[in-house]
Structure formats: structure tokens, C-alpha cells
Design brief:
Elements lengths: L1 H7 L3 E9 L5 E10 L4 E11 L5 H15 L6 E6 L3 H4 L5 H8 L4 E4 L1 H8 L4 H19 L2 H13 L17 H11 L1 H10 L3 H10 L4 H22 L6 H23 L7 H6 L8 H19 L5 H8 L12 H10 L1
Helix pairs in contact: 5-11, 5-14, 6-10, 6-11, 8-11, 12-14
């Protein structure tokens, strides 16, 4: 049914993502979005195993064979979204470049949700803080089953708001913010537990937590990653166009100016966890304001680098304002023609 509907479609968009399963086999997921005559549909088109190397040649060959076997024409693909791997995005030999040779009108984009995650990559002092938070969490949860049980018993005895700490995994994009939020919410219980432990590592972790600015930095990270997680969730979901995603990214850019002003004035209206943690706005450090500035630069760089004709965005938002015979770029005209 899906293939039959796709054969009737004049154009389609494809998203490709490579991931490794538990057997260490690379799996190429292919998703399709198209108009079936009644509504837009988003479907999983195929799952292709990639055994051995995953070069652009191999990936393109696999997809080409899949399209041919399925009776689909690669020329009908007007947009390709990929992860950021060089084999996907390479301008000369990447998948996008090879597909463009078959479909000259193709627009290729690096996944916008992934780009938002990359914008928030930690470095310097804040990365050290994040690593230390994860070290404390792993010490409590993973040193031994007994230690983990004792910690949960302590939480129960202290009527803590939460019943456990959360682990963090870089692959799960939302987990960093959630782990930080839980850590900050249980900081008093964590301190009590570490003080009661006789292990040398517990003493080291306790000293770090009680050190200057550590908890302030952790609480700042908790707040800012809560905002980033909200953006991430807003970018996800069905029936969203690339224009919707770009608009949300640009709206977040404006929010970053608001966050910067919030910190500089010491009001911290958008940083409630940090506000509860520190006793004075004087404890707001350059590390925090510099991170907001870095986010602004990263988001600006990512958005400015999007290869998306402005006229196409106008057409998607209000098609009646666009005349195909007007001053559209040649590339945009070809794309708009596929929608008429």
C-alpha cells in the first residue's frame, strides 16, 4: 500500500539515519514524507543493514538498490535530511552530493534536532562540572547494589521529592538535562549520604560538591538544559515542516538574549534552580554568561548555514503571496513547481 501510494506521488522527502544495534550492525533507517492526494504522510520506508564499512559509496549503493527494487524513482526526492556524519553530508563524496547528481533540485539538510544538540556541547569548566556530577551519580548508583539500595532507603527516610538519581547517556539527548535536574533536586540528600559513607571516593566527591561554585554551576546547567530539552521536544513530533523547525530555532535565539539579560540583571526569573541555590547575584559567574554567549553564536552559525531558499519558506507559510513567474531564484522556482 505504501509503495503503491509513493509511486503515484510526484515528489517526496527522505530522512536517513544510521544507528548501530546491539549486535554492532549498522542499520540505515529511511523515513519518507509525501502527499498521497488527501494528506501528508510520514512513514518508515525501510531498514537496511550495513555490514562492514559504511562509506558514502556503500550507503548510496544500498539506497539506490532499495529504490530500484521498490519501483521508486530517486529523482522524485526533493529533500534529503541526514545525520551529520561525513559520509552523509560531504559536499563532494557524501550521500547528499551523490543524490544531488541524480536529482539536481534536491535540498539536503543536516537534521535540525541534532544540530540543536550540537549547539549545546559543553567544554571547559562546565564540562568539568558535568563530568563531576556524572561521577557522583555513578558512584552512588553503580559502585555496588548495596550502596544503591542504601541511598534509596535514605531518600525514603528523608521523604525526598524523588526516589532515585537518573543516569545520563549521550545518545539519549534529553537525559543530560533530566539527570542534572534530579541531581540538583536531591543535593541535600546526596550530601548527607556522602558524609555517612566511609569510602575515600565519597570524601572526594563531597569535597567537590561543597567547593566554591560547584553547585551553582550544576544548578545553572540544570536550568539551561531544561530550556534546551523544551526546545528539543518542540522540534520533535509528526506533521512538522522544516520551516516550523527553523522558526522554533530562531525563536530560541531570541530567548537566549532574554536569558543573558536575566543573568546580567541578577533576576534569574528563567533560572529557578540557580536562584534557589545561590544567596547573591554576585555568585553568577562569567562561566555562565559565556556559555549563553556561546549558545547564541552556535545557533546563529547553524541557522545561517542552512541551505534553504528564503522564497521557499515564504511559499510554505503563505503560498498565495508567491508568484512563480516573479523574482524567485531558479532553484526555488523548480521546487515550487513540484508543489503546484
Amino acid at each position: 500500500m505504501l509503495l503503491g501510494d509513493l509511486m503515484k506521488a510526484d515528489t517526496m522527502s527522505i530522512a536517513v539515519d544510521e544507528s548501530t544495534d546491539k549486535t554492532d550492525t549498522a542499520q540505515l533507517c529511511i523515513y519518507v514524507r509525501f502527499f498521497d492526494g488527501k494528506c501528508f504522510r510520514e512513514e518508515l520506508l525501510g531498514l537496511l543493514p550495513l555490514e562492514g564499512h559504511t562509506t558514502a559509496d556503500i550507503v548510496f549503493g544500498k539506497i539506490s538498490a532499495f529504490f530500484k527494487d521498490s519501483g521508486l524513482d530517486m529523482k522524485h526526492v526533493c529533500m534529503l535530511v541526514t545525520d551529520g556524519a561525513p559520509s552523509m553530508t560531504g559536499k563532494v563524496n557524501g550521500l547528499a552530493a551523490r543524490w544531488s547528481a541524480v536529482a539536481p533540485q534536491l535540498i539536503s539538510l543536516h537534521c535540525i534536532v541534532h544540530q540543536a544538540v550540537l549547539c549545546a556541547k559543553l567544554s571547559g569548566a562546565l564540562k568539568t562540572t558535568m563530568d563531576s556530577v556524572m561521577a557522583v551519580i555513578n558512584f552512588i548508583r553503580s559502585t555496588s547494589s548495596l550502596q544503591h539500595r542504601l541511598f534509596r532507603m535514605l531518600l525514603s527516610e528523608m521523604s525526598a521529592e524523588h526516589h532515585d538519581l537518573l543516569l545520563h547517556n549521550d545518545v539519549r539527548w534529553l537525559s543530560k538535562g533530566k539527570a542534572l535536574e534530579r541531581f540538583c533536586g536531591l543535593r541535600e540528600e546526596i550530601i548527607t549520604f556522602l558524609r555517612g559513607s566511609k569510602q575515600k571516593k565519597a570524601e572526594t566527591h563531597l569535597s567537590r560538591i561543597l567547593g566554591d561554585n560547584f553547585m551553582a554551576d550544576a544548578c545553572f546547567l540544570s536550568d539551561i538544559f531544561k530550556h534546551l530539552n523544551d526546545l528539543n521536544l518542540g522540534l520533535q513530533g509528526r506533521d512538522k515542516t522544516v520551516i516550523d523547525l527553523v522558526e522554533q530555532m530562531r525563536a530560541f535565539q531570541v530567548k537566549l538574549d532574554l536569558f543573558a539579560n536575566d543573568l546580567s540583571t541578577g533576576r534569574m526569573l528563567h533560572f529557578p534552580t540557580l536562584r534557589k541555590c545561590i544567596s547573591s547575584p554576585a555568585q553568577i559567574t562569567d562561566v555562565m554568561t559565556d556559555f549563553i554567549a556561546m549558545l547564541k553564536n552556535n545557533f546563529a552559525g547553524r541557522l545561517d548555514g542552512l541551505d534553504l531558499p528564503t522564497e521557499l519558506a515564504v511559499f510554505v507559510r503563505d503560498l498565495f503571496t508567491v508568484a512563480i513567474e516573479g523574482d524567485l531564484s531558479a532553484r526555488a522556482k523548480k521546487l515550487v513547481e513540484t508543489f503546484h
